[in-house]
Amino acid sequence: MKNILVTGGAGFIGSNFINYMVERHNDWYIINFDKLTYAGNLENLRSSENKNNYHFVKGDINNSELLEFVFNKFNIKYVINFAAESHVDRSILGAEVFIRTNILGTNTLLEIARRNNIEKFLQVSTDEVYGSLGADGKFSETTPLSPNSPYSASKASADMLALSYNHTFGLPVVVTRCSNNYGPLQFPEKLIPLMIINALNNKKLPVYGDGMNVRDWIYVLDHNKAIEKVFEDGSTGEIYNIGADQEMPNIEIVKLILKKLGKSEDLIEYVKDRPGHDRRYAIDSTKIQTKLDWKPEHKFEDAISYTIDWYLNNKEWWERIISGEYLQYYQEQYGNI
């Protein structure tokens, strides 16, 4: 049995990962360690909560005493670190919590992992650490880091800390950097769920700038299968980029969602661009595809339909979220949307 600490497992990507892996691996015992901040939701884990190979602990990765207790109680030998503050807009409004969680929290986790002689530490990161691309080219694992927001700067710092623990202390660290995820259970402040929910409610769909910022999109299940591959077969000290080679401008995604929902493009509202908005991301995932025999399975147009259907069928889930803090936040940003 592999006793695996998964931090941040109540968030979007982490909960999808746990739900998938708990069903798939009877030989994994997953301890989900999550602070349950605004985007952490235990309802995301209903399918896992009564499984014999899953356990939840509420905690902050900056709480070294609690982490030490968890490592000892469950004899933790593996760590997969999803825990992060992750919304760029929020990092622009205030960077302190991003520094505290993404940098200091990661350092706390690394230090306790080192003291407990774990067998693998997987740091889950983002393509945003590379900065912005022009019209051509893709990010490879050797692309210099050039983060442009407090969020991406905090993630780049965490990556470098993790790799430094490998180089200095021999901690078996591996880093993944993924493109933009979408799918079920994504918090409604993110682009795709926000557009779906607003369209369903016949509210304006706020699009930054000219809407031509390009992202490389990957369905969350494909990302989770890549993490599984890296966890099981990835080499210590290595970085693996994860992407689906499916670039789309934001405005095309918004229009596609409206089309699939039978809504008018009159709902689109162009709003002031956010400061320092990166123009284009694109991932070269040749390394993970050739070295670890992974490849994405979902095409965007198919998976966006699955995603829309999930939000249509889980109205109660997102209505509870937008009735509270989420709605207040976006009212402050855009007025009544």
Summarize the structure in words.
Helix 1 crosses helix 7 (220-233). Helix content is 42%, strand content 18%. It is built from twelve helices and twelve strands. Helix 1 (12-24) links the parallel strand 1 and strand 2. It folds into two domains: 2-180 and 219-242, Rossmann fold, CATH 3.40.50; 182-215 and 246-272 and 298-328, UDP-galactose 4-epimerase, domain 1, CATH 3.90.25.10.
Helical segment count: 12
- Given the helix and strand composition, which structural class is it? alpha/beta
- The ordered string of helix (H) and strand (E) elements is EHEEHEHHEHEEHEEHEEHEHHHH
The largest β sheet comes out as:
7 strands, parallel
CATH-derived architecture of the largest domain: 3-Layer(aba) Sandwich
Relative helix content: 40-55%
For the record, give the distance between the C-alpha atoms at the N and C termini, rounded to a whole number.
Answer: 48 Å
Q: What order do the strands of the largest sheet run in, or round the barrel if closed?
A: 3-2-1-4-5-6-10
CATH topology of the largest domain: Rossmann fold
* Radius of gyration based on Cα positions: 19 Å
Overall geometry: globular
Mean pLDDT score: 93
CATH H-level superfamily of the largest domain: NAD(P)-binding Rossmann-like Domain
- Which CATH class of the largest domain? Alpha Beta
The total strand number stands at 12
- Give start-end ranges of low-pLDDT stretches: 333-337
Number of domains: 2
